[in-house]
Structure formats: structure tokens, C-alpha cells
């Protein structure tokens, strides 16, 4: 047998060669694995990026809807007398806070939880563990609930107690709004609302948000009655002018601005048809204003700033249901008719001695009805489908029964338990002084009130 002999130098060279080959093999294997991992990571990054964009879009839409609260506050404050300016601002500021908490605790679950019955959700109350997208959706829907509840604020202004109003705001966001919303938009975590299953169309809430808010406003003013001096003994309406038209107009602009988030944000996706929605939203509003001005001119009436702002708002309300399913030419028609609806409904309410300070019932209640019907009439590629219109009529009717019916019961019970209508003395003095011990314009009003009393009521 031959014995192999290797020198130390040969052993060293052999080991070096083996190590080099092993390193090359390892490098190839690692490079292949790294390339595969990089490709997989790149794929996940694209998907995550799209989700992050959608989340950002929803949050931005919700922020715009939140800013609408400032619009409501300014419009309503400008529409009332100076002695009630603080009270109106306070109601808008706090109904969002009270309603937002109530919606988080209970309302979100009733609206978006698993809805196997078709009537309300049964889970996701007080959620603590949701996905990033789900949190964004909750935030967006919180802003919608706040919008629905604040519509009643302006209608009942100048004669509603703050505590009674606050209790109503809690109940609306806790139960009344989310249950109806679940019929149309519910079942996010499973199931579906019964109106949605029938094919009811309300993309961004002409009925779900605005008509429900409008009918609740109507219920409130029916319970508390008109302001002192609003109607003569024979029923003739008397003008009670707002104290600041600049605030009213600025509020209208802010609401219009926020409405782009209200409608376009409802796509819940940045890849949706947000361009068409934005155009439809804009042209419906401007068409309504032009229609109002032409009608006023034809009847030789003054073209009022307050009515011009309200005309733009009813145009916005009316396009909200069908903004994603109609075309701009029909959006123009929707806006033109909306102004007619505003004029007729406002006059009808006055004839019945219903005192709505900001015409919220006409703008949101009746405007929501017209917009929801128009969404069925002017559905793209399937115009004037009577079956679809029938479903729309059903949804509109159910909103009236639910919002007005429960609203009357709720406000009456609040009036009995807490007191809903401010006393005649408080109404005469103004709710800024009696409810909040603050005066909106102290330089001009300080002689009217006891400065010592105001100071003592502060912390």
C-alpha cells in the first residue's frame, strides 16, 4: 500500500482552495435567497403603499368633514342674534365631543359591526384592536355622525336649553343615527343592511346623514315651538335677522370646502372615481345658486345672501347620494331642481308656523329626499329605472318614519326629564348670558348684564 505524504504547504493550499469554493457557493446561495427575499419585500411594499395611500385619503376626507363643524358653527352663529352667538358655537363644539364618544362606545358597533339580521351590528363595541384601515374607517364615520347630530343645532337655535340639547346629541349618535346607517352602510365586519340588499343608493349620505339630521331637527322644533315674536297673532311670519352675514357666508364657504371630503372621501380608496365625484359636487352646488337667483329675479324678490348660501348647501346635499353614479349634466339638473325644492319647502314650513332658524329642515331634510330620488332617476347607463326609484322611495320613507318618529319621542322625553325649551326669561336675555355666563360682544353688551354676576359664575 502506497502511503501519501503532504507537506504543510500543500495542505495549506488545499484548504485555501476548499474555503474559496465554499465561500463562492455560500455567496451564490445567499445572493439567490436575498434576491428572492427582496422581490417578495418589494411586492409587499407596493401593496402596503396602496393601503397607506388609502388610509391617508380616508383620514384626509375625515379631517375635511371635521372642518365642516366650523362651517356649521359660523353659519349658525351668524344666523342668530348677537345675544345667542356663544350658545350656538358652544352647541356645535360640544355635540361633536359628546356624539363622538357615544359613537365610539356603542354607535360604531351598531352601525358597522356584524349585521346578520340586516338591522344593526352586534359586535365591535368600544374596539381596542383594529387594523390601520379599520381605525381610519371608524374615524371617518365618527365625523359623519357628528355632522348628522349638529344639523339640529341651528334649527332649534335661540330657544333650546344646552343640557337638553346635549342629551339629545348623545342619544342620536348612540342609537338613532347608527341604527339607520347600518341599514344602508352596515355589515362592514359581516352581513349587510336590509336597505342595501334591496339596492338602495346613497353613496355619501343624502338620506343617511342629511335627511336623518333634517327630520331630527324638525322633531326638535315641533316640540319646542317657535321663537317669541317669530309669528304674528294671525300667523304671518316676522323676520328675525341674523347678526352677522359675514360669519354666515364664511360658514357656507367652509361647508362647501369640506363637502369635497364628505363626498370624494366616501370612496374609501384613492383609486376611486374621485375626479368625477368632485366635479359633480361642485356643479350641483353652483347650479342651485344660479337657479335660486333666477327664480328670485323672475318673482321680483331680493337676492339674499342667506338664501344664496342655503341654495348652495341644498345643491350639495342633493348630489351627495348620487355623486358617484351620475354624470355632470345630471348633476346640473339636480342642482337646478334643488333650489326649487328649497324655496317651496321653506315657504311650506313658514305657512305652518314652523320656526327653523337656518332652514335646516328644508336644506337637509327635503334636500336629502330630492337627492336620494335623483340618485335613482339619473343612475348612469340605467336612467329612470322605476324599480330602483321604488327602492329609493322606500328608503326615503323609512328615514322619515325613523328620524321624525324617534325624534319626537326622544325630544318629548328630554323635555319632560331635563327640560328642552329655554324659559321665556332666558330666551329674552339671550342664552349666552343665561346658559354660559359669557357674552359674544362684551364691548357692546356689557351695560345689559350684571358684570359681578357673570364673574361669580366662572370658575
Using the 3D structure, state the CATH architecture.
Orthogonal Bundle
Distance between the termini: 109 Å
Structural class: mainly alpha
What is the CATH superfamily classification?
Answer: Ammonium transporter AmtB like domains
CATH class: Mainly Alpha
Question: Largest sheet, described in full?
Answer: none
Shape assignment: globular
Helix segment count?
A: 16
**Unreliable spans:** none
CATH topology: Ammonium transporter fold
Produce a short descriptive summary.
This protein has 16 helices and no strands. It is mainly alpha-helical and 459 residues long.
Structural features:
globular, 459 residues, mainly alpha
Characterise this structure.
The chain has one domain: Ammonium transporter AmtB like domains (Ammonium transporter fold), CATH 1.10.3430.10. The chain has helices spanning 8-79, 85-112, 132-155, 162-185, 194-198, 206-224, 245-264, 274-298, 305-320, 328-351, 360-377, 386-417, 424-429, 431-436, 442-445, 451-456. The protein has 459 residues and is an all-alpha fold. Helix 2 (85-112) runs parallel beside helix 4, helix 7 runs antiparallel to helix 8 (274-298) and helix 8 (274-298) packs across helix 10.
